[in-house]
Amino acid sequence: MERTKFILDEKDMPTSWYNVLPDLPTPLPPVLHPGTGKPIGPEDMAPLFPMDIIMQEFSPQRWIEIPEEVQDVYKIWRPTVLYRARRLEKALDTPAKIFYKYEGSSPAGSHKPNTAVAQAYYNKKAGTKRLATETGAGQWGSSLAFACMLFGLELKVYMVKVSYTQKPYRRMMMETWGAKCIPSPSNDTKAGRDILAKDPQSPGSLGIAISEAIEDAVTSKDTKYAIGSVVNHVLLHQTVIGLEAKKQMEMAGFYPDIIVGCVGGGSNFGGMFLPFIKDKIDKKRPDLRIICAEPASCPSITKGVCAYDFGDTAGMTPLMKMYTLGHTFMPPPVHAGGLRYHGMAPIVSHLYNLNLIEAKAVPQVATFEAGVRFARTEGFISAPETNHAIRVAIDEALKCKESGEAKTILIAHSGHGHFDMAAYEQYLSGQLSDYEYPEARVKEALASLPKVG
Amino acid sequence: MERTKFILDEKDMPTSWYNVLPDLPTPLPPVLHPGTGKPIGPEDMAPLFPMDIIMQEFSPQRWIEIPEEVQDVYKIWRPTVLYRARRLEKALDTPAKIFYKYEGSSPAGSHKPNTAVAQAYYNKKAGTKRLATETGAGQWGSSLAFACMLFGLELKVYMVKVSYTQKPYRRMMMETWGAKCIPSPSNDTKAGRDILAKDPQSPGSLGIAISEAIEDAVTSKDTKYAIGSVVNHVLLHQTVIGLEAKKQMEMAGFYPDIIVGCVGGGSNFGGMFLPFIKDKIDKKRPDLRIICAEPASCPSITKGVCAYDFGDTAGMTPLMKMYTLGHTFMPPPVHAGGLRYHGMAPIVSHLYNLNLIEAKAVPQVATFEAGVRFARTEGFISAPETNHAIRVAIDEALKCKESGEAKTILIAHSGHGHFDMAAYEQYLSGQLSDYEYPEARVKEALASLPKVG
Fold first, then answer.
1. Residue A176 with chain B: CB contacts under 8 Å
2. pTM of the shown model
3. Is A10 within 8 Å of chain B by CB?
4. What are B215-240's pLDDT values in tens digits?
């Protein structure tokens, strides 16, 4: 069998992150203060983030050096492997060449540590003693726990109560790494107490958990807030994925015709495609297709509107111009917890508006069908989120079979599914179903978008 | 930070397994037929295994070529990484240099696929259509499911009922890879029905599951049996671990003073140390210490006797000369399910008798203390089995701190602990306890050893 694995040497790892902001054909719309409706500046974000991170959020520099301390930690699991999916290609009987960049080998099992480590480092450097964050299914919380452990920071994670109860394994990972994790809504914050007063049985939501974490950060000593997706600096840190993949595709002797990834907040896929998109902006690769795969039941890009909206449900964050289903929208309980988010990264939203990227919504059952096919050929059991990307990649490969085109498809593989086996079991036993697109709830949520300008 | 990761190129992967049999100072005692008490020959094993595997079991050849098809599959995750545990060293403030060879990156999460893939390949080649096997906690069953999927073999796994119920995730992995997994004792075999007739609520045991799998293999069409540890050919296939590690230690510029690994049946650690032990046999490295870490509650080597015994509880296998606590011994329910075995690989037992290796029994709580320390420094959350090796390595590193010696310690890291988070939670919440060594039960089990010669 020909080569299936493309491995970068540590010395060829990226030493700078790629910042797309200066390369955008038109600038990103400003982030607005929800009270004044005016663009916010670095000082507005100072209660939440250390200044190094705030400067990255707005940086005009194309390349931002990765601190040596962060590179040292990356080296625990990076560079990650680029695989050629020859067994999947053969099973599909397609002339397409399918590659996947596998982020499941990090100690936390996903791409999330790429930014968690950077955020923990900059906070440590700035004298932060403690971080507060939210998490849904726990991918982000566990990754930040891993990072805080390495840099000696305390961490408190507000975990959506329903996940805290139903998916205890990632909580246990957080605790193993020394973080404190409590179910949200909690009695530890005013935001939590207010919710519990109204509804003592509240199952929680990501929006509520964000409110609690932000309140914790702004009211506690030496404490800052950390976020796992959506905002610019998170996508920036994730570009190690795409920078490595670009070199590895060169090693393999191919340039992708299609890049596909799943999008929740957009950080994993942004991290993959941003280092490639300049080739498209510069018309070097005008035909490069970049496809965002989102859940049909939470389709921010394909069914949402591009508008200023809050990042959280309670409306505590600044306003970002993004594709959104409305910040009060509660997504159906699909297994891909990481994709259950009402909005989309402003950078991803902006590039979609510029017709530089595409989006496709896929129903849940079809994603697991794809994930099982992948597991039964390539061997790796993928996260439910990742299965969205695999679904779209398989569909494109099957189109190649029809047309006879030998396209090169690159998948952003965001992580393993070891903590999601129950979802596979549901699928295999025929008990998994699709959720109808909740049109009425989206309409209602969109009606409550904040008025701006 | 200096280099922490040593990565072999694919082209430097071993192309042959190392067979220690011809290099043993005295030959291994023969395996005996339980009826006749005479040494068994290849033909006696033919109902269970394909001839290629049987020949490996007795082979006088030092090097046995790894088929290209097996190498191709190994390349999905091999060569595995050798890490220098610099963060752990620093936390321990020890002059010792600690390395670990990490087998957790395989799709099944442990070292088990190293032999599962080889066994599936040889069976496929011999025309076998279907395999039957047993599994305890599911590491072996899931690895063989992965391998059978790749070679297009059907697989039925008899999983110890108590694990089937309490640890469903690895069963779901098996099903995701297309295997059938049922709780043992089952109604599908006479052995199972006999047990259920006596005790309908039987929680099962590895011994019962082996009996069921063997019965299935010998009574079903085109079906063979596969085993995940103990016997010679399994240790042979696992030598890819040690062969890679030896080259990687050379890359790192060190030769180990101490090699440590956990032992259940002995295949993971045998696979690691066998390629090194010839240096000790040949007196090139007379001071090399090889330490087997076993559970204090199931201490085959340190408290058992070296005698002919059955490999299974029901007494269906040939008799092997090995360290054993008696084939009817039921080990306490420690979380390290892979170490709950009454016996020990004949090769490991023989080398222990030759004073070429040592053994140390460690209590459960201390192993988790070590595992958490490892997770909080190196990042990886390890399997409970692996934590036994980490415990012994830490103890040796702390001795170096006392003595000031900068010894080089190499750990055989057998896999990740993603499916064992509940055990970590028990430890962290103070609910984990040690089991007293069940002296009376061992005495009883040893009294029922088969009479030979």
1. 372, 375-376, 381, 421, 424, 428
2. 0.96
3. yes
4. 999 999 999 999 999 999 999 999 99
